[in-house]
Amino acid sequence: MIRVVVVDDQELMRVGFRMVLGAQADIDVVGEAGDGAQAIRLAEELRPDVVLMDVRMPVLDGVEATKRIVEAGTARVLVMTTFDLDEYVYSALQGGASGFLLKDTQPDHLVSALRAVASGDAVVSPSVTRRLLDRFVGGGGKPLRDAAELDVLTEREREVLVLIAKGLSNLEIAETLFLSEATVKTHVGRILSKLDLRDRVQAVVLAYETGLARPGVT
Q1: Which UniProt keywords apply (predicted)?
Q2: Burial of 139 (0-12, 13-18, 19+ CB in 10 A)
Q3: Cα gap 69→86, rounded to integer Å
Q4: What average pLDDT values come out for the chain (218 residues) when binned by 10 residues?
Q5: d(CA 128, CA 18)
Q6: One-character DSSP codes across 46-102
Q7: Would you give the DSSP letter of residue 44?
Q8: Of 72, 74, 66, 70, nearest to 37 (Cα)?
Q9: Contact 170, 122 (CB under 8 A)
């Protein structure tokens, strides 16, 4: 079972998420919180697999709550937001969130995303992530981090990282580079290990921050 804590300051939203997720045989909503401080306490107490986290909440917002939960290692965090261009979401990604979705995401997409995060993967929406980074990583401005960080990668690994940043799945990367999916998985694993990254979301952020990938460039 995938154990989930739902965090949103609107009770109606929590009820909706509970109905969608609770209908799945492999998902158990073990708790609900209305603010970030309560979310931290529940994550510590219940040790869920995933916290479904709202961003804008009273007492403590979802960004700070995400950082503290991830730092404590109590759960993985999937951020939900009403706005696809929200600086809070970018901060949440930097703070360790395993991805983000819009609140109008279709129920089946929410369920599949939550399962992906619970399994250790990350949710990287190609269009939403690219627009977010376009606005908050600089849109062609000076890179935020030293590209020398990427010197540990081989040329092939750099190619794979660029495609990860574009939001491609392992299968899509394999088809693009004429590799087997297993080989791509190996490359992805080495990239994350060499760069000391937790998941694909952190890889996407790093690719843009170092200038390896550029918003709007296909």
Answers
A1: DNA-binding, Phosphoprotein, Transcription, Transcription regulation
A2: exposed
A3: 21
A4: 96 94 95 96 96 91 93 91 67 81 86 87 64 58 77 96 85 92 93 90 84 69
A5: 25
A6: H--SEEEEESS-SSS-HHHHHHHHHHHTS-EEEEEES-SS-HHHHHHHHTT--BEEE
A7: H
A8: 66
A9: no
- The CA distance from 199 to 114, in Å, is 15
Which pLDDT score is estimated for 139? Answer: 52
Amino acid at 106: Q
Residues 6 or more apart in contact with residue 32 via CB below 8 angstroms: 5, 6, 7, 14, 18
Cα distance between residue 190 and residue 9, in whole Å: 39
pLDDT of residue 132: 61
Query: Per CATH, the architecture of 142-210 is what?
Result: Orthogonal Bundle (1.10)
Which one, of 96, 102, 121, lies nearest residue 2 by Cα?
Answer: 121
| pLDDT score recorded for residue 157 | 97
Q: Answer whether 4's CB lies under 8 Å from 19's CB.
A: no
Break the chain into its structural domains and give their ranges.
2-134, 142-210
Q: What SS3 class is residue 165?
A: helix
Predicted TM-score (pTM) of the model is 0.73
Among 124, 45, 43, 146, residue whose Cα is nearest residue 53: 43
Alpha carbon distance 193, 210 (integer Å): 17
Q: Which amino acid is at 132?
A: L
2-134 topology per CATH: Rossmann fold (3.40.50)
Contact status, residue 5 vs residue 16, Cβ threshold 8 Å = no
